[in-house]
Structure formats: C-alpha cells, structure tokens
Amino acid sequence: MPKQGTQISLDLLDCPCAGSTLDKLIQPAILTLLAAGSMHGYGLAERLSEMPLLKGSKPDPSGVYRFLRTMEEKGLVVSSWDTSHAGPARKTYQITSAGQACLRSWIETLERYRKGIDSLLRAARHASGE
C-alpha cells in the first residue's frame, strides 16, 4: 500500500477500474440481442456497441464472429445464409432453445453479481468516506 502523498503513475483508462473487463459479458449480451430476433453478425457488432455495457466502443467484428462460432458449437445459436438481399450472402444468427435456457441462467447469475456488486459498492463507499 502506498504511503499517503505518494504519487502513483497509473493510466486509469487501461485499468480494470474503468470497466475494461466488462467485455466478459459479451455472451449474455449477444443472447439478449438474439432473443429479440435473428441478426447478421455485423448487425450484432453494431448493436453491441450501442449497449451501455461497452460504453460506445465498437467490438472487433472478427472477435464477435469468433464468439458466435463458439456459441454455435455449444448449441446456443444456429446460423443460416441469407441470400434474400442484393449483394453477397450474409450469415444470420438465431438463438436456440439451449441459448434461451443459457440466457435465463445468465439472468440469475447477473442478479447474483449485481447483489454482490451492490454490497461491494456500499462497502467501498463507506471505506473511502463517500
């Protein structure tokens, strides 16, 4: 622990305290979006960037596609080729019944996380004098 008055050089933008690790919640975010209806991968990446969780930063589309591929291997989503529009065919993703069950489980998990975070936040505020 640093002594009082000691200057700490820390880039808080790269620190987990800035919320940079919230991308770990990408799976429930994708499942939530797909529960509302099927989407193309690029559309998912766009919608993810609009979620407060990612604070407006656009996720890497190739990372989103890798994640979708993993989710498809686990049976949480299925894909099909959409050739109904002009231009190249695009993959469309849909949530499966296993994905719906996973989303319900995420809801319970996130509720537990939120309660734990609320408790930690109260303790941190108390300890910091806020």
Task: Output the keywords.
mainly alpha; three-stranded antiparallel beta sheet; 11% strand
Helicity level: 40-55%
Corresponding CATH superfamily: Winged helix-like DNA-binding domain superfamily/Winged helix DNA-binding domain
What structural category characterises the helix and strand content? mainly alpha
The H-and-E topology, N to C, reads as: HEHHEEH
How much is the average pLDDT? 85
- CATH class equals Mainly Alpha
Number of discrete domains: 1
Strand order of the largest sheet: 1-3-2
N-to-C terminal Cα separation, in Å? 20 Å
- CATH topology label: Arc Repressor Mutant, subunit A
Model description:
The protein has 130 residues and is mostly helical. The chain has a single domain, classed as Arc Repressor Mutant, subunit A (Orthogonal Bundle). The chain has 4 helices and 3 strands; from the N terminus they run αβααββα. It has helices spanning 26-35, 41-50, 61-73, 97-128; strands at 39-40, 77-82, 90-95. It has a 3-stranded antiparallel sheet. α2 crosses α3 (61-73). The longest helix has 32 residues, at 97-128. The protein is elongated, with a radius of gyration of 19 Å. The relative contact order is 0.13. The model has no long low-confidence stretch (mean pLDDT 85).
